[in-house]
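User: Let's play a game. I give you a shape written as tokens, and you guess the letters that built it. Ready? Here's round one.
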């Protein structure tokens, strides 16, 4: 059983509409109960729902984040995009940057670095995603990939106190497969070793659900979880938090 502050971040990806708001009532109630332990809840809905989530969560301790942002710190002629200032302005305190689903669309480490810098300037906390693909894992390149992602992604960022690193192996996302505990422990240790000073908080993401959380929570160097599919069910999301603290 853990007794430390743990972060549970719901990444709704491109799911959810106004009807989904009702399902949050359960989570709001849970967030005010003792069962939450030292859990901190953060929801990252699609942009279209941030404002509605903010209104819903106004009187509770649940935070809101964006799922990505444009790299420009200023407003500008970028059709279809939203920058970190806009996220902050609408009530978000967090933003996910560098998710593999965005990297697959062509985002590279340099662009991610720029996004992180400007998100920090906008006073957002950054959930910086890193992780290797299956091919890279098979070629035993996990450590070199993570090293590069961290080195370039966090280039010239001195103050890392508002950065969370989410280790999300691409092969674990949406597949129902999670890394072996000993591998995960080793990789998280490796990520922490990349920081001379106090390392950022490290989250794990990839197929986290109410069943495997019992095993994942035993990995004591993890500071929380980034949860995709299971977070769309309030019941499953609450279950994950509860099981972390029992
Ligand atoms: P799943 O939990 O659906 O595997 O997604 C993980 C993820 O990508 C969270 O950012």
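Assistant: Ready! My guess for every position:
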């Amino acid at each position: 059983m853990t007794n430390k502050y743990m972060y549970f971040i719901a990444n709704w990806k491109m799911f959810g509409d106004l009807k989904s708001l009702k399902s949050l009532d359960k989570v709001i109630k849970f967030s005010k109960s003792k069962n939450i332990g030292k859990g901190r809840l953060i929801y990252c809905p699609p942009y279209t729902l941030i404002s509605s989530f903010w209104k819903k969560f106004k009187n509770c301790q649940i935070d809101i984040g964006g799922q990505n942002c444009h790299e420009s710190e200023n407003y500008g002629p970028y059709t279809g995009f939203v920058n970190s200032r806009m996220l902050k302005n609408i009530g978000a305190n967090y933003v996910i940057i560098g998710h593999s689903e965005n990297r697959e669309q062509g985002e590279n480490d340099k662009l991610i670095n720029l996004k992180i810098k400007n998100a920090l300037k906008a006073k957002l906390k950054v959930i910086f995603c890193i992780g290797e693909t299956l091919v890279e894992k098979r070629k035993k390149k996990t450590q070199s990939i993570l090293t590069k992602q961290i080195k370039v992604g966090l280039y010239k960022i001195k103050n890392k106190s508002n950065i969370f690193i989410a280790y999300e192996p691409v092969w674990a996302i949406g597949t129902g497969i999670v890394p072996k505990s000993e591998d995960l422990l080793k990789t998280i240790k490796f990520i922490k070793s990349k920081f001379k000073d106090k390392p950022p908080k490290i989250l794990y993401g990839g197929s986290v659900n109410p069943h495997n959380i019992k095993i994942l929570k035993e990995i004591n160097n993890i500071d929380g979880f980034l949860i995709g599919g299971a977070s769309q069910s309030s019941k499953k999301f609450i279950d994950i938090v509860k099981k972390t603290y029992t």
